[in-house]
Amino acid sequence: MSTPAPVRPTAGPTAAPAADPAVAPAEQQGRMTHREILSALSGMLLAMFVAFLSSTVVSNALPTIITDLRGSQSQYTWVVTATLLASTASTPIWGKLADLFSKKLLIQIAIVVFVVGSMLAGLSQSVPTLIGWRVLQGLGLGGLQALVQIAMAAMISPRERGRYSGLLGSVMAVATVGGPLIGGLLVDTSWLGWRWCFFVGVPFAAVALVLLQRTLHLPVTKRAVSIDYLGAAFLTAGVSALLIWVTLAGDSFAWISLETALFVGGGVLAIVAFVVTELRATEPIVPLRLFRDRTTTLAIIASVAIGVAMFGSTVFLGQYLQISRGYSPTAAGLLTIPMVGGLLVSSTVSGILITRTGFWKRYLVAGSLLVAIGFGLLATIDHATNMVVLCVFLAVLGAGIGMTMQNLVLAVQNTVAATDLGAASSAVAFFRSLGGTIGVSVLGAVLSGRVGTLIQSGLADVPGGAAAAGSGDVGLASLADAPAPVRELIQVSYGDATGRVFLISAVLSIITILAILFIREVALRTESGSERMQGGGQGEGQGEGTVEPNTTADVDDQLAGRTTADQRV
């Protein structure tokens, strides 16, 4: 199916300003050399590494943390979910703030917020306190997710963005999956302990702040914007209510009860209010008009399942390896290296090949198939699965995630109008994070319920099991103090229940495959976002209402996807 050719600057009068020394520097126009791009990306990539490392380094430490603080399986899940939920809700707001203040300053603020949250989390004396400070971590992570993607879209054309997206995907991959290895080493080091999992990102953050100050040079333009705080509040309230219901239902109260009606009813009403607010907002945090584009809609659907894959696999895999299989945190981290390797290689190689050929759908299809196969294979694991076999399964899953995660963003950025680059990029990241949030919470509830069923059914055959059952709940919170036979039953139950979590993920990944298959491939553009804006924004499916930027700085702000009514003619 043919598509309008991208508008390119002509050799006539429109091309002359490029040679005019009075025009703003090249880096403000989105036309940067390879060396300049790498220099600008260095600080941003390190900032992303800090954020993802500090949020995933606790994965292998969580079993030790929860056991030490006497937490429950529900609290185990919420230590992760709290960060993801705060990140999801704050990502669009950070993007809006970029219209009012320096993008460089905002990235630096986001790093500081994240580090402060990390250090306070490391000082926590109870699980509820830890969850609270993890929310602060999530606010910083949301800022980094929004601003780095917007800056990349401004500087680099879609055709060239493949190899740079590969770098970003590699950094995220190493931090997301390699973080648990560092966390395991910290927990197993007697003179450090699990609290240092929250302190380890501070040195990296200091270096990232210096690099950003020296290498990132973006125009600072202030203009009147309307930040949709009400929409963000409704979305956060709706998602939080539903996640809390899924986590507590069947444990703290019955699935069919007054509490369920209140949580579900309140959550649905909040989401309906969110949709109504977005339809009326001047600049909504999730522009619903983006869903008119088929590629954007399908990419968002696919990203939800990828979010489940990214976060669910690392969270519950670390729990499986330590609680069920008895590995130390360090050993559990080492066992995730095949997944890191698969993700790193596939992300880098697919990015290079996309840049060379200009085509991307084949890699998305292959990646989605590998994700489904990887989850399907992991669904077969139990408390006695061979570790070599498990590592092969993880390598397959990692390769699939690497080929899909960043390339979905690339497909959307290549399709939407230049004025919607930032909004569309943030939407994909937003729903991927939301998918991870919902996935971790729902899968955690499934795992908790399955473990409880297996434990209760096995207590009758365990010496001392009847006494343990009569004393209250038997599960993760009682692991450290339980008699040896009961402790072994808990470990076996966790091992046998984890496969069900991956089975559900495999079913969800089928949705990703279908969504990607229906995406229409469009050859990658060779102009950056700024150059497309200077071409008049035509040939991009916008119809009427093209944008006429008055200054180069206006161009950079508009291509971040936050164009207001007073900027349209």
Describe this structure in words.
The chain has 20 helices and no strands. About 70% of the residues lie in helices and about 0% in strands. It starts with about 35 loop residues before the first helix and ends in an 11-residue tail after the last helix. Helix 1 runs parallel beside helix 6, helix 3 runs antiparallel to helix 16 and helix 11 packs antiparallel against helix 18. With about 575 residues, it is mainly alpha-helical.
Descriptive key words:
569 residues, mainly alpha, 20 helices
Query: What level of helicity do the residues show?
Result: 55-70%
Number of helices: 20
Mean pLDDT: 74
Unreliable segments of 5+ consecutive residues: 1-30, 536-569
Largest sheet: none
Number of E strands: 0
The outline comes out as: globular
In terms of topology, how is this protein built?
Layout: H1 34-56, H2 62-68, H3 73-97, H4 103-122, H5 127-155, H6 158-188, H7 196-199, H8 201-215, H9 229-248, H10 258-280, H11 294-324, H12 329-334, H13 337-357, H14 361-378, H15 387-415, H16 421-459, H17 465-470, H18 484-517, H19 529-534, H20 552-558
Helix pairs in contact: 1-4, 1-5, 1-6, 1-8, 3-5, 3-9, 3-16, 4-5, 4-8, 5-16, 6-13, 6-15, 9-10, 9-16, 11-15, 11-16, 11-18, 13-15, 14-15, 14-18, 15-16, 16-18
Short description:
69% of the residues lie in helices and 0% in strands.
